[in-house]
Amino acid sequence: DDEVFLKVKAAFDTLSDVTKRKSYDSTVDFNESIPKGGESEAKFYKVYGPVFERNLRFAACNDPANMASNSDANAPTNNGGKKKKRNKSVSQSSNAEQKKDKAPPSFGDDNTPIEEVNAFYEFWIHFESWRDFTLKATEQTEHDVDAAECRDEKRWMAKEIDRKARAMKRDEMSRITRLVERAMAADPRLKREKEREKAEKARVAREKKEKAEREAKIKAEAKAKAQEEAAAKQAKEKEIKAKEKAEREKEKKALRKAKQQLRKSVMSSYQSNAAELNDMWDNIEDMNDDIELLCAELSLMDLTSLNTSFAKDNDVTQSLELVQDSVIQTREKLKQSTEEHNRKRQARRDAAAKKAAEQAKAKAMKPWTREELSALAKGVKKYPPGGGNRWDAIATFVNGLCHQGDEEEENRRNREECIEAYNTAATQGPTAIVAPAAAAAPASSSSPA
User: Fold this and answer.
1) CA-angle at 332, arms to 331 and 338, nearest 5°
2) Binning pLDDT at 50, 70 and 90, where does residue 13 land?
């Protein structure tokens, strides 16, 4: 009777304690088998549906401890209908447990939307199991914590039981993971979704390729059109240049012809009436010089007009006088042109000289400040004699210290000014070249050596 009583008492203690009952419920006979995978689409729902439904028993949302706490929270109180205040930590934990209590997604059927299918597998991929293997681990390790002889042995037994329970929990989660992987591999809904995504991806790639081909075709057509336009423009420019060249050649030829005609006509008239024309030219060389002057200075229109007038006039003397008048006019134009050119050139020279004189005067009148003299003294020490372009470097140094950012060229010091200021300061002292306002400064102010 005592043995039966102890067993009843142990059973009562186990079932009364939530943690012990959870561990006990975890050891109840349970079919842990899972499909081997590779099932046909026709058998998929019949094979995997019951397995997921069976394993849903150990989901966190079905945790007996949460159900017991919820039932206790909803139970009526014995203090006049008033509920005891729960502290903040308890309320927060209850909110977290309420999230776990949310109903899990169903397995569905062949017509279930793909969003719900994805939610179902997302739930099982992150599956949380409440299954506790402490009791089963105690049985397998054959450790009785209550029968331990000392505290160290009791602690060692507890650790061994906990290690074994964790290993069994890992095996349990690996089994769930294999179940989910095999189900996802055989699920016809996911296969159709993969095919759809593949077709969509192929469609997008095809559209992208077609778009690229269209753009390449448009670019090729635009390039061909641009090349045609460039070729047409080049051909037109070439044709225009050829026409211009032909016109120039034609004009040159006409000019040569007009010059030859003028030379021939004047020479023929002069030779045939040389005795009567001694008062026009002293000799034939002078006459040739005048004719060459006309050929060199007159345009094609003027030469043609002169040849026409020469041919119309039957009087040789009048014709040659006409040529002499043309020579006189040409010489006058050349003289006027030369004088105008010389006058403009002299004006430019005078303006340049005046500007140079004004700049030199402005620079000569501009005194040196103490800041510039100090910079000059530092530059002379920094760049000793013997270096290449010494005074150019000193001028650049002075301008860098005193005229940095000054864009006016006339305000900057050049090498000649630096040399002159240095020589003057060396012979007459710095006050000979310093500005009046600076010279009136207190004697205690520093001056360049």
Assistant:
1) 90
2) confident
